[in-house]
Amino acid sequence: EELLFASGSGCARDGWSTTCERLLRVMLLYDGRFVPLELRDPDNACHGDTNIALLKSQEVRLPTGWIRRFELTSTYELKDNSLLINERLVATDRPRDGEADNSRLFRSSDSRRELAFSGAYFTYEQDSLWDGMRELRGDLRADGSSSSGR
């Protein structure tokens, strides 16, 4: 199979929160054109096209007035019929009027996940740190707003 790995970037603002990302999009060359490959979870449910966040960041204002910044960086490598994704998610805090240089580490986590290629789509067993750690620990709800307390 011939695959195309393409990357691009952009930012969006939703209220006070700003999210920026650089994505890797994986497509299959099929019948002379590139077709987006689906990404499926362990239950074989489709989660859209195979887009991997290479760099993603978001800042949210906490109820205390401090600003929490989440930053995910990822690298990838090909191995047999899989795409191995190495992720690092770092959360830092700074006072409302503080400079980014004066941020303090809140939490950091590393993960290695595998996307297995079936010939028609990719499947995964483990969620991205972006989806997992931030929501599980209550640092940021799925709707993008901050949870209460620190």
SSE layout and pairing:
Blueprint: E1 3-14, E2 17-30, E3 33-36, E4 38-40, E5 46-49, E6 51-61, E7 67-79, E8 82-94, E9 104-117, E10 121-124, H1 129-136
Parallel strand pairs: 4-10
Antiparallel strand pairs: 1-2, 2-3, 2-6, 4-5, 6-7, 7-8, 8-9, 9-10
Summarize the structure.
The chain has 150 residues and is mostly beta strands. It has 1 helix and 10 strands. Helices cover 5% and strands 61% of the residues.
Shape: elongated
- Report the biggest beta sheet as strand number plus sense, adding barrel if it closes: 10 strands, mixed
Structural class given helices, strands, pairing? mainly beta
- Approximate helicity band: under 10%
Mean pLDDT: 83
Query: How many distinct helices?
Result: 1
DSSP, total strands: 10
Radius of gyration: 17 Å
Strand proportion, as a percent range, falls in over 45%
Structure overview:
- It contains one helix and ten strands; from the N terminus they run E-E-E-E-E-E-E-E-E-E-H.
- Strands 1, 2, 3, 4, 5, 6, 7, 8, 9 and 10 form a ten-stranded mixed beta sheet that branches.
- It is elongated and about 55 Å long.
- The longest helix has 8 residues, at 129-136.
- The chain is mostly beta strands.
- Residues 141-150 have low confidence and may be disordered.
- The chain starts with a strand and ends in a 14-residue tail after the last helix.
